[in-house]
Amino acid sequence: MQIAQSKTREQFPLSYKKIIKKTMASTIAITILLLVIWGFLAFMLGSIGQEAVGWLGTATFGIFGFLFVVILLTYLYQRWYFAVYFYDLTNDFIQIKKGPITPREITIPYERIQDVYVDQDILDRIFGLYDVHLSSATVSSGMEAHIDGVEKQAAEGLRAVLLETVKQRISKNRVPNTPVNNNPIS
Amino acid sequence: MDEIITEKNYPVQGLWILKSIIGSLLSLIILVPLLWFSRFSESKDSEISLYIPLIIIFAIFHFIVTILRRATFHYSIEGQFLTLKQGILSKQQRHIPYGVIQNLFVKQDLFDRIFGLASLAIENASQGAGALAAPQQQKVFGLRIGNQQRQQVEMVGFYGNKVSIPGLTKANAEILKGIVLQKMKENPIEDSQSGL
Fold this sequence. Notes:
Chain A has 186 residues and is α+β, with helices and mostly antiparallel strands. Chain A is built from six helices and six strands; from the N terminus they run αααββββαβαβα.
């Protein structure tokens, strides 16, 4: 699948482990859900009587088949998501675009960055991945503006580049207006 | 760019009206066959036939309000400010200096994707105009659960810290985004500590 490349993504690549991690995260969630359903079914059928126990095997088989299909679909979707994940640090703006079916794209000027923070959840710890968040003062940027699933080196690199650019941009003696060109991004 | 760009250059497409009333239309599509079938049933199910006119009236009302809302929303990208006007009965105006724009947001939902539309949102850090409260979010195994702020249909106009121009064609949304980004680049604010 064609990967949405940008200069930044070449320099600080997303880790392929992200696909596995995301698939695992949804696998765990779905497995827990299905176990609850299975337990409920087992309890119900068990209380009906002996002749119903035979159905339990069919139900178990169905549930595991369903689980397998869902995991496969999730994996394919996550690969697609990974391929279209686009982020680029241009001269004036940060652009992040994600979502294969319903794309969401956010553009933030460096001056408006409020903080850069890096975090890991428990699966990130296991896989050695990092999320780099770079929100501005709005709610939607807090929700959308993050680059998740980069390895340690790329995370540190991204953080360093972001902080350096932001520092230059908001310092008092910044170079005044860059020359106007017709194409603001790229 | 000397000329002032307004909604006449990059209009909100008429298709967007259909999108914003799709909820009402869907409920009609579901309920009308129900009414049809209830005629054959023995029991006199008067409840459904009561709901239908109510929903039709609501749908028509919704349709008219949406048309008016679209017709009364104006934006113009001027030299120093982004000027916005809206309001059917009570009129509102808003002027946003380009320097304080926090981020631009272009998104397409499923309807947009099918019909080649996109919506553009421009946000600053304003607390005025009834800013929305931050949604609660929790992360479990890297999955987001909890109430994501997911408005079904993006309204046209501005509210809170957000100016939303939905129903642009994809190409127009990109051009408009480019124009606003260009303006932001040309008009940085001098004391750019935080923009708050």
